């Protein structure tokens, strides 16, 4: 069996977060590659054999801003893709396993060689790696071309040219890093999975041409023109090309993990089609934007300071903090002009508590950025921009697992085909992701749902999957909210008094409604269960068609259902929708002409389809703007 016959891009890259680790068989310390197993007996997604694995890299691997901070020195967070992998069922449990997470925000390839790789034992089964962005100056690009935290830096154009030169010089540094990392692998079947970067922008759209992401209100900002977006994307592409070339030079023990096409495929880029920027909290966005909220963003109490507020020099956070602090020292009045309350002023008690925290942690003050001891604190929503969100890290984690499956199958002698990422969506038996597993897909209850729908008020376009995902975002809030970007007359909802039930419906053409239902509260981890369950239904059942599906959550009382059904169906809980006011079909199918007959007379005005039918079937002629002879009434 070829891998291409059982695995598919769309299935493997489901946007699923993992919350709980299921109990799976443990193979002790033995390596799967030494087991005498026939391929048909092997669960290719079972990596419970894995004993030694490590994470190396920069802020993309550290997961800056994604979830809660678990390491202050390197800005590591607990929803980074390595952390998501560590709690995924596919990794299983192994009492002997040792995982070293050495990724550090701000790390260059030379830092990884000097400070991370030497700390690894020479027994690694798997190493995940993200690196190269800091070598070419990611933070400087973001300052000079996007945010202007320090508004007096070089021009964007000159920064891009300098970055191109750095990209061209990257190859030798990557070779040195990979050679050092390969020396830490255990055997010929051990692998390094090198994660590439994703482009940030959709450069084909025009609605961002006059948009800026400027940080300071009093500055002019840098417009996100198509030309600028394309130039910044090209830097990512060329950096990835250098990484791919280095991976190829390193040989089969290093595997390149290409994230770029998937971030685009899922509509996860800035300035995507139909998006009016800034739109920091849209569900499909896979990068952090200013003021993007986490699913459960940890907020400190007002006026308190913890060790999580410390920014170290050399980290992405530290660079941003230093630029902002330098600007405020030169223009202290700008503090009052900050948008959205980016900075919070500290009181004396806060400073005292920070001093205590520094003393307890025995932190070298010389390592601290300028903004670690002063009057200001920078919020999470600012210091993680242009890094993957939690859902972006989930995409990366699933991609790494996918390549691990491929390598495991190859080691066991299974034919994976020439292009294992291509396959059939319909036939793939791969396990569904957490939290709830595969949904049950029910029979179609309506014959047709338009491939593209349009909001009659604002002209926004939606596809069937996109509608369900948009409604998921509203349903999975415990308030069971209306969709903010659609007119009220198009939508309705139901929520019971204790907020355990939520149903949202939208009116579609042809007496159809799109609907989602959750039968559980949606708070805490249940919010994530809700989010993931609807995503599974969308990808497994809806699949851009007039389909339905349901699934239970990880707890028996959790239930989720979504799809398309007759408008105001008898099973609906919501208040009735008006069938005459609905989203519009941008390409409606032709009417059924069964039973149409030529008559002696017909109205002189009719729709284009009817007129053409008359001409083709009834020998009609157009005269004086009307139809002269027999046509169907």
TrEMBL record:
Keyword annotations: Hydrolase, Signal
InterPro entries to which the protein is assigned, alphabetical: SEST-like, SGNH_hydro, SGNH_hydro_sf
Pfam families per record: Lipase_GDSL_2
SUPFAM superfamilies linked to this entry: SGNH hydrolase
GO molecular function: hydrolase activity, acting on ester bonds
GO biological process, alphabetically ordered: lipid metabolic process
Annotated SGNH hydrolase-type esterase domain residues: 56-268
Signal sequence segment: 1-23
Protein name listed in UniProt: SGNH hydrolase-type esterase domain-containing protein
């Amino acid at each position: 069996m070829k891998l291409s016959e059982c695995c598919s891009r769309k299935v493997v890259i489901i946007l699923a977060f993992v919350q709980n680790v299921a109990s799976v068989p443990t193979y002790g310390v033995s390596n799967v590659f030494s087991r005498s197993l026939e391929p048909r007996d092997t669960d290719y997604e079972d990596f419970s054999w894995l004993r030694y694995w490590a994470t190396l890299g920069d802020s993309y691997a550290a997961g800056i801003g994604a979830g809660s901070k678990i390491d202050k020195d390197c800005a590591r967070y607990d929803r980074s893709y390595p952390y998501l992998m560590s709690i995924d069922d596919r990794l299983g449990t192994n009492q002997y396993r040792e995982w070293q997470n050495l990724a550090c925000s701000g790390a260059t390839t030379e830092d990884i060689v000097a400070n991370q790789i030497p700390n690894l034992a020479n027994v690694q089964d798997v190493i995940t790696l993200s690196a190269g962005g800091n070598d070419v100056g990611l933070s400087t690009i973001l300052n000079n071309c996007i945010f202007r935290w320090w508004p007096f830096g070089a021009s964007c154009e000159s920064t891009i040219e300098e970055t191109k030169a750095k990209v061209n010089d990257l190859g030798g540094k990557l070779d040195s890093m990979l050679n050092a990392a390969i020396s830490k692998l255990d055997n010929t079947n051990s692998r390094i999975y090198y994660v590439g970067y994703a482009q940030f922008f959709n450069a084909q759209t025009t609605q961002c041409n006059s948009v800026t992401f400027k940080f300071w209100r009093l500055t002019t900002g840098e417009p996100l023109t198509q030309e600028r977006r394309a130039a910044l994307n090209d830097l990512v592409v060329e950096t990835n090309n250098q990484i791919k070339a280095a991976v190829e030079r390193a040989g089969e023990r290093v595997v390149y993990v290409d994230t770029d096409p998937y971030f685009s495929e899922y509509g996860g880029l800035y300035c995507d089609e139909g998006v009016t920027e800034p739109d920091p909290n849209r569900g499909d966005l896979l990068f952090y934007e200013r003021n993007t909220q986490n699913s459960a963003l940890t907020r400190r109490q007002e006026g308190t300071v913890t060790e999580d507020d410390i920014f170290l020099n050399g980290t992405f956070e530290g660079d941003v903090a230093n630029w902002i602090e330098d600007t405020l020292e030169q223009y202290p009045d700008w503090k009052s002009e900050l948008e959205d309350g980016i900075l919070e002023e500290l009181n004396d008690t806060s400073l005292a508590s920070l001093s205590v925290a520094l003393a307890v942690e025995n932190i070298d003050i010389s390592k601290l950025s300028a903004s670690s001891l002063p009057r200001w604190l920078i919020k999470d929503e600012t210091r993680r921009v242009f890094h993957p969100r939690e859902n972006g890290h989930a995409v990366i984690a699933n991609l790494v697992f996918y390549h691990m499956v491929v390598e495991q199958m190859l080691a066991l002698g299974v034919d994976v085909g020439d292009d294992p990422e291509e396959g059939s969506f319909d036939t793939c038996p791969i396990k569904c992701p957490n939290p709830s597993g595969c949904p049950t897909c029910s029979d179609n209850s309506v014959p047709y749902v338009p491939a593209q729908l349009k909001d009659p008020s604002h002209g926004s376009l939606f596809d069937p999957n996109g509608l369900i995902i948009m409604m998921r975002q509203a349903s999975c809030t415990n308030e069971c909210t209306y969709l903010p970007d659609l007119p009220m007359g198009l939508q309705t909802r139901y929520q019971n008094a204790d907020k355990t039930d939520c149903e949202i419906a939208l009116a579609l053409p042809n007496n159809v409604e799109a609907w989602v239902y959750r039968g559980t509260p949606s708070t805490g981890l249940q919010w994530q269960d809700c989010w993931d369950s609807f995503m599974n239904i969308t990808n497994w059942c809806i699949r851009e068609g007039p389909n339905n599906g349901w699934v239970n959550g990880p707890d028996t009382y959790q239930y989720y259902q979504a799809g398309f059904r007759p408008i105001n169906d008898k099973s609906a809980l919501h208040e009735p929708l008006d069938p005459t006011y609905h989203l519009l079909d941008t390409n409606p199918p032709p009417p059924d002409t069964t039973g149409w007959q030529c008559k002696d007379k017909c109205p002189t005005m009719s729709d284009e389809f009817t007129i053409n039918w008359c001409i083709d079937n009834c020998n009609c002629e157009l005269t004086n703007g009307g139809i002269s002879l027999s046509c169907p009434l």
